[in-house]
Design goal:
heterodimer; A: 340 residues; mainly alpha; 16 helices; 2 strands; 1% strand; flat; B: 448 residues; alpha/beta; 5-stranded mixed β-sheet; 14 strands
Chain lengths: 340, 448
């Protein structure tokens, strides 16, 4: 991965501009023998590749593949956790209920919408913030390690703990930390506001606390990406009298493009998994359930509060398909140029 | 990446996709065959495992010392106690296969029917001594009984009330009831809140234990009395439709909703003990904390009356024997020991609960005539059972059905959204439809 090119317009030409004849003669010699005896080493490469990926693939099959297959099967049955009744075949009934029964589809579609809102807001916000923090912390300062670890700290805390702390911050009484801070700042003009209970701010509160908790992780990855950019490029840019913005635009951004794409994808996958904070805040009281219910939350409560495994499986299957589809689309849209 | 390896990958993926469901089915078959379960009396010697929920520190301490003294009182049986956080306790048992469950386990009263239905609990009648059975209070025995067999015995029962801060009530000039007979109506309760608000610096005068969350068992236990007191019911003849969303219940829920402006969110759990609010709607278990904080300023009042007389929830944590135990005799001996006066008294002193054994109840300084918690004893002396809710009875048992997990999940969800501002009528109707759908999916949860 060497995306560092000070003049982005140059490299594509370099390969194409050499005489066409040279390319034409070169190609057959390189890819021609594929069907001949040169096939061997390629085959061996493939074998080695398979061997080396085997542990990961085995893990993937055991912990993702099989459970998912299991979920697909279960979603066609009426299965109750621990019920003495044998699971009965339900056909598409679970799916029908999820999409057409107004009592069930209402919350489910709302949960899907909440998940999408969460992802759409969190991905750019968290990636952008992480980039800003990374740039801020990518300097040669004394004790920079201390600052970096300070910003990384929330990542170390489990989300459940973070949610419990934020419950105190967002408490709706005038003794909630946020409310009392606003009260002080506004010279007493700010009353108690119900951050978690008001449907307008409930999701926003969850987003803020999630970003606060997670941003350090993305920051560290981006920081590593930033440090890959050779200093000479900046020196050269400075000699060319590039402004700081130009340096950011034409040196930094291209330099970490691959990292940025990776971070954005990772964030979006993580953001679909949002569950812990909602669960803890609901059980702690005062969270607007409708405004913050996510699909994962619905699946877990359906399975383990109501013992309805079939329904919960159907929810997860639908959700899995949606997430896979979105990820594929996202990959297509933001695919890094230098993948091959 | 070359096209060939991509093609190879695709075939591999297709292969996997085809094989996976089969593997899953094989996995299904693997653990599906856990035939009939039955407790084995065993030798009455050896180590038995015990699961209990982790509650307040004082309760955990009382239980731990009971186990310790049991272990040192004899040498034949050794008890290993495992405490599991209360919020996930029921889920843990539900998700655990019967064969992995301990010899003795605690469970919350209303979940018992479900565990019996799931074959996770054994009847205790043949393992617990006759003396222990006859010493259990009527309420405790009734809670643990299905089809004439007993599956659980509690060390204590439970009750709900409104704790009042006498000093704050008097300062606001609020007159409060002295017992069940002159109970507040819901309107009087609202008026009291209003009067208290005028004297309160932040306008919050009521604690509804919001910090426990309402989409939880606390929501159902704490606020189903509103439904009962309005003449409704969570479940009537196995159906929620027509019982849960009656006009009276809807209007009672509107009143409940209107209290939110008076409610302290109680994030720190100290709203009442620290004197921030004058009234706290909670169960007996807060008595030790509250009486320590307020002393003689603490008054105990019944929940307000919504038209069908004051009501309270009843039933609490109980002990049973795991269906797959190999040592039921030893388990029974441990239960006998737990129900002795010393341990029941230590436990009920720790959590303020009404003792569930006759001898301990009679000796209880808290619940005897004239005792500070006499009100709870009075309420429990007028039991309704789980379906026969009349105007004159007070203590209602939550529905004894294996479908209770769904009932409580749907009702507490509705309650949570009503508290958050949703329309009570549509929220309750939705819950009723969901409960009925679930019961029809499960053939009414008839215990086989």
């Amino acid at each position: 991965m060497e995306p560092v090119d000070p003049a982005p317009a140059a490299p594509p030409d370099r390969e194409q501009s050499p005489p066409m004849t040279a390319v034409k003669t070169a190609r057959p010699t390189r890819s021609g023998p594929r069907s001949g005896p040169g096939n061997r080493p390629r085959n061996r490469d493939r074998l080695h590749g398979l061997l080396m990926s085997a542990p990961a693939v085995a893990g993937l099959v055991a912990f993702v593949g099989i459970p998912f297959g299991y979920a697909v099967v279960l979603s066609f049955y009426n299965v109750r956790l621990g019920s003495p009744m044998a699971p009965s075949f339900f056909g598409l009934e679970q799916y029908r209920r999820l999409f057409t029964d107004p009592d069930l589809s209402g919350p489910f579609l709302r949960a899907l919408l909440n998940n999408l809102t969460f992802a759409v807001v969190v991905v750019p916000l968290q990636t952008g913030l992480a980039l800003a923090l990374a740039i801020l912390l990518n300097r040669k300062l004394k004790a920079i390690g201390l600052f970096r670890s300070l910003f990384f700290m929330p990542v170390v805390f489990p989300m459940t703990l973070v949610a419990v702390i934020w419950r105190l911050i967002l408490a709706r009484s005038d003794q909630g930390l946020l409310n009392s801070a606003l009260h002080a700042v506004s010279f007493g003009n700010w009353g108690a506001f119900d951050w978690l209970g008001d449907s307008a701010t409930a999701m926003a509160s969850v987003i803020v606390l999630s970003v606060w908790q997670g941003v350090g992780f993305q920051m560290v990855i981006l920081l590593a990406g930033l440090q890959q950019i050779p200093g000479e490029l900046y020196e050269a840019a400075e000699l060319d009298r590039a402004t700081p913005w130009q340096r950011f635009r034409h040196v930094t951004l291209p330099g970490i493009r691959g990292t940025l794409v990776f971070v954005a994808m990772l964030t979006s996958v993580l953001s679909f998994r949002v569950f812990d904070q909602v669960y803890v805040l609901i059980h702690g009281g005062g969270l607007d359930e409708d405004a913050t219910r996510t699909v994962m939350y619905q699946a877990v409560t359906t399975a383990f509060d109501q013992n309805n495994i079939g329904q919960a499986s159907a929810i997860t299957v639908v959700f899995f398909l949606i997430v896979v589809a979105l990820t594929l689309i996202q990959r297509r849209v933001v695919r890094p140029d230098n993948e091959d | 990446m070359s096209p060939t390896s991509r093609r190879y990958r695709r075939t591999a993926c297709t292969g996997l996709a085809l094989v996976l469901p089969l593997a899953a089915l094989a996995a299904c078959g693997g653990n599906g065959g856990s035939g009939g379960t039955s407790a084995d009396a065993g030798s009455g010697k050896g180590t038995i495992s015990v699961w209990a929920h982790q509650g307040q520190k004082s309760e955990d301490g009382a239980l731990q010392s009971a186990v310790k003294s049991f272990n040192s009182s004899q040498s034949k049986i050794k008890v290993e106690l495992k405490l599991i956080p209360g919020n996930d306790y029921t889920k843990t048992i539900t998700a655990t296969d019967a064969s992995q469950l301990p010899d003795v386990m605690e469970f919350d009263g209303p979940t018992m029917a479900n565990f019996v239905y799931n074959k996770k609990l054994a009847a205790i009648d043949s393992y617990v001594s006759a003396k222990t059975m006859s010493n259990a209070t009527a309420g405790s025995k009734a809670q643990g009984e299905i089809d004439g067999k007993h599956y659980g015995l509690g060390m204590y029962d439970s009750g709900l009330g409104v704790y009042g801060n006498r000093k704050l009530l008097d300062a606001a000039g609020v007159k409060y009831p002295t017992g069940l007979s002159d109970d507040w109506t819901a309107d009087q309760f609202t008026a009291a809140l209003k009067a208290l608000k005028a004297k309160d610096s932040d306008g919050k005068t009521l604690d509804l234990q919001e910090n426990n969350g309402y989409a939880t068992e606390w929501g159902t236990y704490g606020f189903a009395p509103i439904v009962w007191s309005a003449g409704g019911s969570l479940l009537k003849d196995g159906k929620a439709e027509g019982a849960l969303a009656t006009p009276a219940v809807v209007s009672a829920m509107k009143t409940f909703q209107s209290w939110k402006t008076y409610v302290d969110p109680n994030t720190d759990g100290n709203a009442f003990a620290k004197g921030r609010v004058a009234l706290s709607w909670v169960g007996h278990w807060m008595y030790p904390t509250y009486s320590k904080a307020l002393g003689s300023d603490l008054v105990v009042l019944p929940l307000p009356d919504f038209g069908n007389g004051p009501k309270t929830g009843q039933g609490s944590w109980a002990w049973g024997i795991g269906a797959d135990t190999k040592n039921a005799k030893a388990a029974g001996a441990f239960l006998d020991y737990l129900m002795n006066d010393t341990d029941v008294t230590a436990m009920t002193t720790a959590n303020g609960a009404p003792p569930a054994t006759k001898t301990a109840l009679a000796a209880s300084p808290l619940y005897k005539q004239g005792g500070p918690l006499r009100l709870f004893a009075d309420q429990l002396a007028k039991p309704c059972g789980d379906s026969d809710i009349t105007k004159s009875c007070v203590a209602v048992t939550r529905p004894v059905t294996a479908g209770y997990p769904t009932v409580t999940a749907k009702f507490s969800d509705a309650l949570n959204s009503i508290y958050g501002g949703a329309d009570p009528k549509s929220a309750l109707e939705k819950a009723a439809r969901a409960i009925d759908q679930d019961f029809s999916d499960n053939a009414g949860y008839k215990i086989p």
